[in-house]
Amino acid sequence: MSPKSLNTQQTESRCLVRGSINIDEFFHVSRIVTPGETRSSTRYERRAGGKGANQAVAVAKAAGHVSMIASVGRDGDWIVNLLRETGVDVDLISVTDDEPTGRAIIQLTPEGENCILLHRGANFVPHVLPNYPPFTHCLLQNEIPFEDTLATLSHARSTGATTIFNPSPLPSHEELRSFPWRNVDWLIVNEGEARSLIDALKDSPNQPTTTGDETSRGIKDQGMSTLYALHHLPTFSSSVNIVCTLGSEGVITLLTSGESFHVPAAKLDGPVKDTTGAGDCFTGYLVAGLMESASNEDLGVQNAICMAVKAAGICVQKPGAMESIPDRMQVEGNRT
Ligand code: ADP
Ligand code: NA
What we know:
By secondary structure, the protein is α/β, with parallel strands linked by helices.
């Protein structure tokens, strides 16, 4: 059954994702190739990826309406079709002759060692400013030109849409310091990104990232004091809600109201198989939850986070990134 036919609290909300599409190419090798050496791979796999595409798919699988603005090369038709079949509106995905689709060339050894070469490709081909479709929520990452992210954020703000920023991979310190944080409603980061953000934004290089005795406290408490430290930085706007994922420790949230809470990770039925894309699955599901709570006040932020945590818990038990994002029915049926 397609996620669209679920009809779970369908609303007028629509999410715009302006972000990346990649082809992830996995070359299985007995060991990583050294300079000057030629080796044959033992197996090859090609998968759809890119944080923008992964998160758009997660919104769609969570039964949210979602449109994507992105670029692929002539070799990217199959991904656009895959996104369409998943329920993503692909009308504003353009095809360029100038570059191939963004690529990750991944060498993988049986021991799990890897080595990754990225080609930004079509993701960085200059874009004609699109006619934006109507949207209520705007979700951005950092795998496209920074100025495109800024332009989209600024447009989204001017329309009054809710903006969600997942700054991954983390922009440079300079970009973070000049970032228009007042335009962001929701910041979604992992623990490493939260700490790096403080390092980038704190006033002096010697200022500690957090205070107190780090070693005696749990990951959750350390994470929470990181969030408070971030929230109080002068360069960071106090109007940003912060959500920080902590891997197997779940998620901590600090709302602009000052309310904070921890949601533990989902209890798993089986072993962790592949955490790739768990963050993207979490982010897309959270945004779909926020879209629903915008029109139904009974569905609070905490509910949205719980749904996203359940989805991410299913995602880590399956291999792959995009293909391991569960649909809404699987998440609702999973009473953990
Ligand atoms: P990222 O991949 O962006 O670093 P995290 O590792 O924090 O993100 O994972 C995102 C979410 O995925 C977590 O908040 C959690 O809900 C879920 N998750 C990740 N690892 C596990 C795990 N080992 N067990 C259960 N849930 C997990
Ligand atoms: Na997975």
